[in-house]
């Protein structure tokens, strides 16, 4: 979705990014229809992808002007604030008081530092050197790895649509990099 929405926020329209994105979206569509139907969870996945598209484009616009650690700090304080409000409201709505145990603190610390802050900082740092389009293509590998780990760790079966969809995702990434590489080579050789 980044190549489609990018021009709305001032990014240059790119046929190569749009073509690669279309290949990837087709692969995601095939993987989503693995069971032959489009479920409510698939709709939520589209909403999530749309919100993450907006995030990537916004981060792309500010990553060059601000330090990655400052961007991460602002995001983590915001996430922590809203997560705390949500968690407390859930506990109170169930008529329970908040529980503060050491094991809960360790879990929250791990999720906050490793799973959230470190990955958010990594993306903010990387987007200083990687475009929003390339970032979006990298993130499209997530369902491919999910499929692979579901097969290896959970012994789930992978259907033909899943394999073909994953192949299209990988093809879209290769095409985007081949086209980008050949364009950079032409530009650097002065032709």
TrEMBL record:
CC annotations in GO: plasma membrane
Keyword Iron among record annotations: no
Membrane topology: Multi-pass membrane protein
EamA domain location: 41-175
Residue intervals passing through the bilayer: 13-31, 43-62, 68-88, 100-124, 136-155, 162-184
Swiss-Prot/TrEMBL keywords: Cell membrane, Membrane, Transmembrane, Transmembrane helix
Compartment(s) where it occurs, according to its Swiss-Prot or TrEMBL record: Cell membrane
Main location: membrane
Protein family per UniProt: Belongs to the EamA transporter family.
Record-linked PANTHER family: EAMA DOMAIN-CONTAINING PROTEIN, OS03G0707200 PROTEIN-RELATED
Protein's recorded name: Putative permease, DMT superfamily
